[in-house]
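User: Run a structure prediction on this.
Assistant: Running it now.
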Amino acid sequence: MGDEQGRFRVFIQAPDPERVGLYFAEKGFGTGTAMGRDMLMMELDERSGAVDGMMNLLNSDMFLQRRVNRAYLCDSCEDNIDAAIREIEDKAAAGARFRVVAYPKKIEDGIVEKLDSHGEALDPRGFAYVAYIVSIMGKYFFGLSGRGRYFARPSIMEDRLSRAYYKIAEAFERFDMHIGKESKVLDIGSAPGGWSQYLSGRAGLCVAVDPAKMEIERANIEHIEKTFQDGIKEIESRAPYGLAVCDANIDPRQVAEFIAGTPGLISDGGAALITLKLKYKSGKSVQRVIDETCGIMSKSFNSITVKRLLSNTLMEATLYARKA
């Protein structure tokens, strides 16, 4: 049985699907519905151009590409797999070469064998169409789409430096952050240097504070080889800063106390960006740390926002605070 004409269910396979849904909502697609731990279902109208818009976003957005594993475009639904396969074969043009993308992946080989036994032209590389089948909620959702709508996650080879770089790059986009070439920025717990690398390309001076070695060197990066607690005099001597950031594995409340409690550290109109490390078993403990950090920051900052970025780990969130 087909769904309502023009209606698509797009299934997005990713860890923490609710976080991915919030990202899609910011891009104008709605939050969708989380289906378990690794699947997000988006209901879209084909006639509005939303399906192509979402696939274009998936294939161009570097933050989604690092988070999303697979995407499945389904416009029909059946109660059993054989009926779904028959409908796919009816939709496929004679001799059309296509590949199969199924969820859960363990059913993929069986579907390929059935299609192959029926004489269908399967080609995982030179395909023109993609057959999607998703087994979930006791039903089989499926669809057949052209290759132009296929999402292929690129191979991503990353080290600690690049992972950190992507995180701050996403923060700048999601929080609509801006710093000028005349600005000074403070990077607390800066090693190995991913955030300093990003910031030094936008600010006049990046003061990087960490006793560990930096893996990035630039003329406008000044490395204070101390903890921020031991380097207070050096840090204050270069104040005020237009932006202070911290992605280190430090209790965020300690960082907040320093940033919000040090007079003259942040200039008027300045801001702070802190990765909240939330390695607690209890959800109440996580929320308490978030609330307490926000409370500390509110003593000096007027606007405070917390988001779970795609680039955050499952035990992180990111706080952005700004002075009026």
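The chain has two domains: 7-149, 160-322.
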